[in-house]
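ARCHIVE CARD
CATEGORY: sequence design from structure
SOURCE FIELD: tokenized fold
FIELD CONTENT:
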């Protein structure tokens, strides 16, 4: 994972949080100040977006930050900044990176084992879909590891990037070479044929080659 980029992003969010201390409004009789909702919501959105992209919305850091930013009292602000500081410490020391890679490796192994079983049982179409979905998620992780956005704006909505778009951007950013880029394009084309019922446009051997290729790609990237 590109630790330098992640640390820069989280430092920026923490700086925004600390700057909000200058915006505290104090009303009697309480001695606690609060941050006006408008500017607080911007900080809240940045933090939640960062954590959800880095981890997920079920992770303890996301849940605790969401709880701490539900209100904008000064003590809530301090708690949210401290949560980000703890997350920063784990990023800097590589703990989150190691955990994510371990969990991802186990999940991907399970899915690839499932696809191989289906392929051996002559369910080539279901196998191709699962292999393609596993590859797409691996591309998403590679994008996050290399500071490449995994979402794009469609109309006025933020939607996940397609596997082909992520593949193009990973290649343009020199994460891998043109041969791997072309191979991934071919594998995703096969996955799309399987997903859209074009079963006669590929055969069992094509999916077998796809399985071996994806397995080797994921092991080396």
């Amino acid at each position: 994972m590109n630790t330098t980029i992640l640390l820069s992003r989280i430092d920026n969010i923490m700086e925004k949080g600390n700057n909000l201390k200058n915006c505290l409004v104090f009303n009697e009789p309480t001695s606690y100040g609060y941050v006006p909702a408008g500017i607080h919501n911007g900080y809240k959105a940045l933090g939640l977006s960062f954590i959800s992209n880095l981890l997920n919305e079920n992770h303890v850091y996301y849940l605790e930050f969401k709880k701490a930013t539900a209100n904008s009292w000064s003590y809530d602000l301090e708690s949210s900044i401290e949560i980000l500081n703890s997350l920063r410490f784990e990023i800097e020391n590589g703990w989150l990176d190691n955990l994510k890679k371990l969990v991802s490796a186990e999940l991907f192994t399970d899915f690839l084992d499932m696809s191989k079983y289906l392929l051996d049982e002559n369910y080539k179409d279901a196998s191709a879909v699962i292999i393609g979905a596993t590859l797409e998620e691996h591309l998403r992780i590679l994008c996050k590891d290399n500071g490449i956005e995994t979402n794009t704006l469609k109309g006025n909505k933020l939607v996940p990037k397609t596997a082909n778009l992520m593949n193009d951007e990973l290649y343009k950013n020199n994460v891998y070479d043109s041969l791997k880029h072309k191979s991934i394009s071919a594998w995703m084309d096969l996955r799309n044929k399987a997903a859209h019922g074009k079963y006669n446009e590929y055969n069992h051997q094509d999916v077998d080659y796809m399985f071996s290729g994806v397995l080797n790609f994921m092991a080396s990237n």
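CARD ANNOTATION: The mean pLDDT is 85. Strands lie at 25-26, 33-34, 151-154, 157-160.
SHELF: design records, drawer C
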